[in-house]
């Protein structure tokens, strides 16, 4: 089913994130800034959602992104889709720095990367017909040359939605059908890259499988590349070529999917994948991790994972481990790898 990277060794990066950080915090007004400068007030808290992330998405691949809630997956997804700017670092789209793009180039890059969210109802205007919803963006951007109705039908069919029902409103459909409309809407602007943020999480398991299969069929048909954000390891294992594991704003490990499940290297990944009672046969769930995820308002120094790591030593408390290759295509950010290498 999925094309392995070994079959496409020369695939060029579609998207390259270099040292990308993103913080969130309220910007104090002038009076507050003066008070802070004079030491009369404390600076407002800043959330470090992403911390110097390096990540490459290659053309044609499905890159799965996993990690506990709040580790920065959605923030990374939104930056990858171009709908949120980084606070620092570079986002290279097809080799070009997004910040340097303007006019038509920026518009093309924006259209080429589309995001598919978890809740299609929130993304679909309840007063618009399915036809209007799918036609809206391509019409604005002058992408419909001929018959609008035929254009819409084509994309609805690609998403497995019966065009005969296109005059109805979103609430007249089930969650699965609405997910298909949402997908048709994204496809209608002819993207190269889909960022799926928990796109199947809200659906029943049988519908989830249908939508995942649809994503994979579309990948073949339309030559799509995916960044697939999910908290469900079963879904990620099923759909991805490579997996990136995030912990508290950092990518701590990255490897081809089979490699990461067979030989997890980072202690965080190992704990995440640890054997747990299976709720459904064949379904992998996150292991219940010891300790709480520290606050991104005040992340631990050194390796962010050290307070929860059974193997932590002094160096982990002070020095940020660099992610480096430990096997072909497999990188991990753990000081223990240096000790083993030595
Ligand atoms: N617009 C925002 N303003 C302030 N803080 C934000 C904003 N967006 C995200 N955050 C914070 O950034 C951190 C990372 O959030 P993000 O949604 O990227 O994580 P996540 O891994 O996708 O979590 P989840 O799986 O729960 O969606 C969190 O602490 C979150 O509260």
Describe the structure.
It is a single chain. This protein is of the alpha/beta class and 342 residues long. It has a domain at 5-17 and 55-86 and 96-286: Rossmann fold. The protein is built from 13 helices and twelve strands. The protein has helices at 30-37, 73-80, 103-112, 120-123, 130-140, 148-158, 175-187, 205-222, 233-239, 257-262, 267-273, 314-318, 336-341; strands at 13-24, 47-58, 62-66, 88-93, 96-97, 113-116, 193-197, 225-229, 242-247, 250-256, 324-327, 330-332. The protein has an eight-stranded mixed sheet, sandwiched between helices. The model is unreliable at 1-9 and 275-282 (pLDDT under 50). The site of adenosine-5'-triphosphate has 13 residues, from strand 2 and helix 2.
């Amino acid at each position: 089913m999925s094309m392995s990277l070994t079959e496409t060794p020369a695939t060029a990066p579609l998207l390259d994130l270099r040292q990308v950080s993103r913080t969130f915090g309220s910007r104090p007004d002038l009076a507050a800034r003066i008070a802070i400068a004079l030491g009369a007030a404390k600076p407002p808290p800043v959330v470090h959602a992403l911390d110097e992330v390096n990540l490459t998405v290659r053309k044609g691949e499905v890159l799965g992104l996993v990690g506990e809630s709040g580790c920065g997956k959605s923030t990374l997804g939104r930056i990858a889709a171009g709908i949120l700017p980084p606070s620092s670092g570079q986002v290279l789209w097809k080799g070009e720095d997004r910040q340097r793009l303007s006019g038509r180039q920026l518009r093309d890059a924006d259209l080429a990367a589309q995001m598919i969210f978890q809740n299609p109802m929130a993304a679909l205007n309840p007063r618009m017909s399915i036809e209007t919803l799918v036609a809206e963006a391509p019409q604005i951007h002058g992408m419909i040359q001929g018959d609008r109705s035929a254009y819409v039908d084509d994309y609805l069919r690609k998403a497995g939605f019966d065009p005969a029902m296109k005059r109805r409103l979103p609430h007249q459909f089930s969650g699965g059908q609405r997910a298909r409309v949402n997908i048709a809407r994204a496809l209608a602007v002819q993207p190269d890259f889909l960022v799926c943020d928990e796109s199947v999480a809200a659906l029943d398991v049988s519908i989830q499988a249908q939508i995942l299969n649809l994503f994979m069929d579309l990948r073949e048909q339309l030559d799509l590349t995916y960044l697939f954000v999910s908290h469900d390891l079963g879904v990620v294992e099923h759909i991805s070529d490579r997996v990136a594991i995030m912990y508290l704003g950092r990518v701590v490990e990255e490897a081809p999917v089979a490699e990461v499940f067979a030989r997890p290297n980072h202690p965080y990944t190992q704990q995440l994948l640890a054997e747990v009672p299976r709720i459904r046969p064949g379904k992998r769930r996150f292991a219940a991790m010891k300790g709480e995820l520290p606050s991104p308002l005040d992340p631990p120094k050194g390796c962010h994972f050290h307070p929860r790591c059974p193997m932590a030593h002094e160096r982990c408390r002070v020095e940020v481990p660099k992610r480096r290759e430990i096997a072909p295509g497999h990188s991990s950010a753990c000081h223990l790898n240096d000790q083993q290498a030595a």
